[in-house]
Amino acid sequence: EAKIQDLVPEPDAAALRRSIEYHLKYTTGKDPSAATLTDWRLAVSRAVRDLVIAPWFETTQRVYTEDQKRVYYLSMEFLIGRLLEDAILNLGLDDKLRSIVGNFDVDYAALLTDEPDAALGNGGLGRLAACFMDSMSTVGLAAYGYGIRYNHGLFRQSFENGWQAEEAEDWLRQTHPWEFERPEAHYPIGFGGAVSVDGAKATWTPAETVLAVGYDTPVPGWRGRWSNTLRLWSAKPEREFDLEPFNRGDYMAAAAPSVLAETISRVLYPDDTTAQGKELRLKQEYFFTAASLADIVRRFLAHHDDVAKLPQSIAIQLNDTHPAIACPELVRLLMDHHGQPFETAFEIARGCLHYTNHTLMPEALERWPTDLMGRVLPRHMALIERIDDHHAKSVKRPESVKILDGGEVRMGDLAFIGARRVNGVSALHTELMKQTVFKDLHELHPERVVNQTNGVTPRRWLYNCNPALRSLLNDTIGETWVTDLDRLEALLPLADDTAFRARFAAAKDTNKRRLADHLKHSMGITLDPTAMFDIQIKRIHEYKRQLMNILHAAALWNAIRQNPEKNWAPRIKIFGGKAAPGYVMAKLAIKLINDIGATINKDPAMAGRLQIVYPPNYNVSMAELLIPAADLSEQISTAGMEASGTGNMKLSVNGALTVGTLDGANIEIGEAVGSDNIFIFGLTAAEVAATRAAGYDPASHIAAEPRLAEILEQIASGAFSPDDPGRYTDLVTNLREHDWFMVAADFSSYWDIQSKIDEAWHDRDGWHRSAVLNTARMGWFSSDRTIRGYARDIWNAGTAY
Ligand code: 26V
């Protein structure tokens, strides 16, 4: 039997060159002498894309003829980043293209970075979905990703005088060469209106309807041996244009339907902290969920006739509660369109649906006012009530497990009740789910909650972003690690090999110089690549405690000034991340980092000792530069609050040592790399809960830690903000009196572990040994392992590789 990868025509350089010339001329309509860098990039992208088409068709065909179980991953966010370099490296075309493009007299590196970074997500949840797409193709699982084709992804961040400023992002301004519009795959999606009931039959007549139009992007796995589809929905009006107002001369009114409809897929919500009950957000959720389910049911019925068999043929994964409306929507389709009675419809739907929880933070759990839900989705509101009653009747103590509570629909409870399996994303997080938010539901349905610890794709996050380490690994242990990351264990004995350690350290040095060059060009700053690169990159959130990190920097500044000749480990603290535009505290933390940074950076006594760097607009592409250059990875959330983390995995597998709390996947990372190769500090999740229960008093911790007391006084008195001395009054008061995230409680142990890290840094051999052991022991955190876990424990679906 032919392997799908045999269908990737072995691309000889001459054919590739001709294909690029062809696309430049006939697809882009440009002559080489007039072509811009972007024209060349589009031509190269098309030439590469052509090579993915054969395996893509072949995969689709094989899944269809073998009637393989299909997995549908429904996610409001796919944070995919750039696609060209990823595709080139997956297909093994890097060397060939570098020389072909060079021969056209075009800068290959510049061509790759000309691609805008597709930022259709906020952070961890969206990037996980992108890693899963890569892994599902690489392990050969029949899968479709479904999401929204936002016209504007996550905002662009800049700093104005140290404050975050936001600008609309515009990735579709240029042609997006990877997608295929599917005008034939369109579905009308209704909103509002009324429901009429005739006996057992309900008919929903929506007040407005928009069209969901699909755009497909092939997702090639490693070496193109399999290729799944990412289908993103764009909202279009049913009629582009109203002729009647146009004829009257009212041109605005003529275009109104199109403006209204297109609003639904216009922009990604940039707030991943609070679930405010915004009508447009609910419409986005229903829009993409309903379009996806219509598409899924249509594909099923194209070669099956009995909807009762849906659960054998398909598995749907809900990425958090954002698509949780899938439960009543599928019940609605089965009842109103396929004549199933309610209870059968509900059991079929539940047999198909699975739900992943990504956060326990109460303010991020979605709840929709019942009046809003009833107005936007009247048929669904009625079905949710019915599902709630049906479930309550089947259990003891029904009052503790109601979906409808205080005039709101609790989407987590709906998702739990409507799902066959519910999973957390790290061992700790799954335990906390069972003990806290889903305690009552878990007791009623003890088989439902399972754990699937997150992972990251080793293609993008090691092979592609770290060419220096990639070639060392390939030279040393061969290339099989790319699809079997446990093979990194072959490095274990080499941790004690001086020559290997030196090569490993040299790769790190190369990556640090690459980052230093980049920051020189983009920000005009100079970094000493021999200093420790101490990196915290993630969304700005109080619970992630960027504040504690910058307080540590300020305390270090005081300590170094007092004792400049001490053997300080030279450190460059690098921050990256965006704050939700409405998150006042997070934006103030950004300003504080920039204020403290400016003070430290201009102090000549800090030269060669301490520096603060915060490049604006952290995104996937910047992560690809920062992660391979990190020596120290900051994973310092208040224990119990970071569901898993995935940046922690990327940094460790690239040879950074972690300083972290016992939170999320840090715990499992510590078990894997060994306690000698990670720096763990702070309260445990149980201690955090107990401290809170006993009545936490930050003032006593501050009084007991003069270093912390001193910097808080400095900050409060305006030492870092002489232009506005009162800027941080509230922030400091909050730390002194409330400190929900327990910065004061953990500060001493954070300071102490950072001092140990300074000592460890001076033992260069010891540090590099630990770095090698981090890489060697992180294989388990491949998202290939995670996906095989979902396939086995949740989806009951097969994999070809
Ligand atoms: C939440 C919300 C709340 C409602 C409004 C819009 C919105 C948009 C995004 C989110 C996502 C927050 C949840 C999230 O990203 N969780 C992260 O998921 C990662 C993948 O499982 C995990 O590694 C992180 O620890 C977790 O914070």
TrEMBL record:
Gene3D superfamilies: Glycogen Phosphorylase B. Keywords: Allosteric enzyme, Carbohydrate metabolism, Glycosyltransferase, Pyridoxal phosphate, Transferase. It is an enzyme of class 2 (transferase). GO terms for molecular function: glycogen phosphorylase activity; pyridoxal phosphate binding. The keyword Transferase applies. It catalyses: [(1->4)-alpha-D-glucosyl](n) + phosphate = [(1->4)-alpha-D-glucosyl](n-1) + alpha-D-glucose 1-phosphate. Its EC number is 2.4.1.1. GO terms for cellular component: cytoplasm. It comes from the Bacteria. The modification N6-(pyridoxal phosphate)lysine is found at K650. The keyword Transferase applies. One of its GO terms (biological process) is glycogen catabolic process. Its cofactor is pyridoxal 5'-phosphate. InterPro entries: Glycg_phsphrylas, Glyco_trans_35. Belongs to the glycogen phosphorylase family. Allosteric enzyme that catalyzes the rate-limiting step in glycogen catabolism, the phosphorolytic cleavage of glycogen to produce glucose-1-phosphate, and plays a central role in maintaining cellular and organismal glucose homeostasis. This is Alpha-1,4 glucan phosphorylase. It comes from Pelagibius litoralis.
